[in-house]
């Protein structure tokens, strides 16, 4: 028998691949951190957000499941159709909606049809959020992307990092596991997948490393795209620098994971990266200029040092355990109020890893 007052039904999107249902890594991690904090977490997966038939099938299945498990809170872990289904199945329970990035900012796809589709999905997410007791966004720029009418019940809460998984390890040992040359200088880049690739701005990343290779021939660009979650800490500890060139972001998980591994980061000013790296050295925040980015990476590689990112991440309260505590505060408050009236003060210039009491 689960604790009816400490239980959440998470509605998240997922995709079938090779007969297995895949869901976003951060949702798995957040669910596990809540379970470690004593909460019961039930996952409801939306595997079709496009076809009417698929949406209706998911709605019926998730409503039945929510009725069966009787949670205290429903939490939609994305905007658009995911949030809409969360709203439709919540019954008289309080709903929390998390906006994660592209559901507010979109993706730089070409063509009117795609832009119209994204605008429609965004409005669907806003409709669901208006019926929510609380809204969560991952960074201040996502807060600014919300309609004014939603901001009074919105909270800035980035995803946390599992510092037991993402931790400093010996560089050469990690390179041995990967079969990497120990003399090369490896710049890591998150290539992402599918339609999100354009948002990561790979052309600027390639131009940056091409320019740098003229000065440091041993430099190579390693694009991270298909590695498993367990492999990523090994890759980060084997690399020498992380490069971020994204056109826009919310609170990119890869930056916080690199911080936990003490991997130096050179980035453009996207999302909350500048806030996260304000006291992290070595590393730099640079304009969207390949020459300037290359010079910043050269400075990092020449220093031969790892960063102090792990200490900074922990001080910002962005471990999975600390973020789970903040999330539970939100759940408790919406249970008490069960209305959209709860307000929190947005702290723009300080750590947003934990909410004010």
Fraction of residues in H or I helices: 40-55%
Separate helix tally? 16
The total tally of domains equals 2
CATH class of the largest domain: Alpha Beta
Structural class: alpha/beta
Strand content: 15-25%
Shape: globular
How many strands, which pairing sense, and closed or not: the largest β-sheet? 7 strands, mixed
CATH superfamily of the largest domain, called what?
A: Glycogen Phosphorylase B
Structure notes:
The chain has 357 residues and is of the alpha/beta class. It folds into two domains: 7-160 and 319-337, 3-Layer(aba) Sandwich (Rossmann fold); 171-314, Rossmann fold, CATH 3.40.50.2000. It contains 16 helices and twelve strands. The strands form two sheets. Strands 1, 2, 3, 4, 5, 6 and 7 form a seven-stranded mixed beta sheet that branches. A hairpin with a 2-residue loop joins β1 and β2. Mean pLDDT is 90; it is low at 339-357.
